[in-house]
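To: structure desk
From: M.T.
Subject: fold request, one chain
Message: Could you run this one when you get a chance? Sequence is below, nothing fancy, just the single chain.
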Amino acid sequence: MRKGLLFCLALALPWKAGAFIVDADTVALWHFDPGQELIAADSGPGELDLALDRSPADGSEGSTIPVFTTGCIGGALRFLHGTSEAYGGYGETASGFAFGANEVSVELLLRTTSTTYDHLFVSPTRFVVVLDGGKVGSFVGDGMGWSNTASSNVLVNDGSWHYVAVTYDGADLRVFVDGALAGETSYVATIGPMSSFYVGGRANNSFFAGDIDEARLSSTTRDPAEIAVIAGLVAVECPEPTSALAGAAALAVVTLRRRYSRGSS
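Reply: Done. Structure tokens follow.
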């Protein structure tokens, strides 16, 4: 059944290589497959490798460097949180790269049981994705202020893999969980160039506890229909999809069958 779903989905999709690929709108794509111990390689055009680090660098609080583990699709990074706000593992890109489009999307797969306030993705003063009490939230900034938080209405801290997508189009900030819209807020702003990125936390701030797989940053507002189909692909690629992801896969197959029926009539 799973192979049949994957085959049906792949037939009509330009991203036949899997749920996450580098396309014209990709800024960075981190697969988090095992490689160099302290580097998570970027497959995107900017070569924004994540340096896996902790604060402070001398490691006086013990090892909290993220470690590679088995993911939903290939490998994943296991973030070990921190023993205080100043000590925790995270990934950080080098500064100097910037993109200035006022549209942005962040997608990732996560698995966690955390009930605390954790940073998942940060571009300082510009774009933040958090986990707060088991729910995903996001807010955007223009360098002078922040939007209200777009908070999801779905818990994702059940220890299963979930596909999360956050999009901003210059006016509306939306959070999707497992292919479905789960929260949104309006905020008209020019967010400006983003020049550094953190995954799983930020030094002297809050850190994530759990696994992250397949994180993608894009300079476009990913379409809800595309997000729904990606959720379906995740469901057939992930060894143990949630019921919501399985439902997304079934819905995607129905959509594609209707498309083929119209095309053949």
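Reply (cont.): The two ends are 27 Å apart (CA to CA). Let me know if you need anything else for the meeting.
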